[in-house]
Design a protein that fits this description.
It contains one helix and five strands, in the order ββαβββ. The chain is mainly beta. Strands 1, 2, 3, 4 and 5 form a five-stranded antiparallel beta sheet that branches. The radius of gyration is 13 Å and the shape is elongated.
Amino acid sequence: MTIGPGLAGMPMDEWKIRTAKGKEYAFDTEQEAREALPEYGEGSTLWKRKAYRGLAGITMSPGGWTQVD
């Protein structure tokens, strides 16, 4: 993967919610994810990872996802 120029080459936090049924929904910020979490029902969890954004919107994360809540 080619890392993009400028901010695209800097690691950024990515957030997702995983529902009890295993569906995943991505968010740009922690605030958005935390505000949305109750809407996805009991058993839904919040996850975070450091990711590098490449060209064409592709992301790469050497560390993978970590459960936050």
